[in-house]
Amino acid sequence: MTRTIQQLFNLAGQTALVTGGSRGLGLQLAQALGEAGAKIMLVARKEHELKEAVLSLQARGIEAFYTVADCALEEDLKRAADLTLDRFGFVDILVNNAGAAWGAPAEDHPLSAWDKVMNLNVRGYFILSQYLGRKSMIPRKGGSIINVASIAGLGGNPKAMKTLAYNTSKAAVINFTKTLAGEWGVYNIRVNAICPGFFPSKMTAGTLEALGEERLRANAPLGRIGDDEDLKGLCVLYASDAGKHITGQWLAVDGGVSAITSG
Question: Is 111 inside a domain boundary?
Fold first, then answer.
């Protein structure tokens, strides 16, 4: 019998690990998965933020836990994955969200900052995806990996933005998503990316100030920037059986900005 749309989007009985899940976009994605029924493990560096995030999820009736880890470090990522597997037994959904940005003209961009951005935004995604693929998803013949990229990975920048490493890393995430999806489809593991536009967060505060939030709103076809709900629907689509025939894809959630700026 064909399932209802409510049944297709239901994540009851599933588990999700969300990196960078203590605040901002990561917490929004964790809320979405938890509200759809999944059990949540949050991973981030700052324990006080993680505690607050878990309490906020639990207040919504979500079963949520946390572990402290630096998502740029291989040993931290593997330890966080092992703790998650010890608690839940398996991981159905991995959200690679932890990220960093650095603003500097290309000619002055520090190599150490380039490495910091690449290690967290690309290398960390690979390490955790590979590890949980080997330990949980491949043996169980299924899973959903959701990579948070950015519309910054789709093209260049306004003149006021000097974020060469960040843009490069997010373009890499998009191709990482496509390539991994092509390889792991045989295991029924789906890999997709979300490309947010401008959302208010701690990481984007400087960019929003430099570019002017009102100007960004005015330049978007929908006349707004992202809010605390705008990523939820796509996240649950990717994670659930509602999106069981979707893999290797990216979708911009940006109020239409990429539609009028991409070639």
Answer: yes
Residues 89-100: pLDDT tens digits? 999 999 999 999
User: Rounded distance, CA 64 to CA 215, Å?
Assistant: 38
Within 13 A of 150's CA, how many CA atoms are on the CB side?
Answer: 26
Query: Which CATH number fits the domain that encloses residue 43?
Result: 3.40.50.720
Ranges of the chain with pLDDT below 50:
none
Measured CA to CA, the distance from residue 23 to residue 49 in angstroms comes to: 7
Domain enclosing residue 158, as ranges: 5-255
| Nearest in space to 32 (alpha carbons), one of 148, 161, 202, 176 | 148
Q: What is the pLDDT of residues 241-253, one digit of tens each?
A: 999 999 999 999 9
Enter the pTM of the model: 0.95
pLDDT of residue 126: 98
Given the residues 66, 125, 131, 166, select the one marked as catalytic: 166
| Number of compact structural domains in the chain | 1
Structure tokens at 207: 């960019």
How does DSSP assign the chain, residue by residue? Answer: -PPPHHHHH--TT-EEEEETTTSHHHHHHHHHHHHTT-EEEEEES-HHHHHHHHHHHHHTT--EEEEE--TT-HHHHHHHHHHHHHHHS--SEEEE-------B-GGG--HHHHHHHHIIIIIHHHHHHHHHIIIIIHHHT-EEEEEE--GGGSS---TT--BHHHHHHHHHHHHHHHHHHHHHGGGTEEEEEEEE-----TTTHHHHHHH-HHHHHHHSTTS----TTTTHHHHHHHHSGGGTT--S-EEEESTTHHHHH--
Residue 166 annotated in active site: yes
Indicate whether 260 belongs to any domain. Answer: no
